[in-house]
Amino acid sequence: MALKWKIKRFEALSVNEMYSILKLRSEVFVVEQNCVYQDLDGKDSKALHLFGDLNGEIVAYCRLFDAGDYFENASIGRVVVAENCRNKNYGHELMKEAISEILNHFQKKNITISAQLYLKKFYEQHGFIQTSETYLEDDIPHIEMKKND
What we know:
Oligomer: single chain
Largest sheet: 8 strands, mixed
Radius of gyration: 14 Å
Structural class: alpha+beta
Helix content: 25-40%
């Protein structure tokens, strides 16, 4: 089943959309990954919020930043797909949409991400290359990756 993609600035999100986004992020990044960390980092208000809606439920999400708002380059963060939807290629759809929206909204082609190490091959499929050694972020191994076109 196809996702309906939406992109909104923070102030345009409805209360229900913001609640669903935070719920999804918490379910995956806090509960599933058993990681206590401060998800509400004060950066949501700077981001564009891209999400995939499936029958009224947000099942795929990420936030997009212009160059200088998070990294020197434009960036994609909080990439998440609901656990029960991971076998449907929604993660790949999400990344394609995210890359396209960064070009569309920010006119940027160079993108930097802080990727969980175990997802390296996933991001490589979207043109990202590892640009740092492994480091711990919230006790989870991460690497910096860049896409330069």
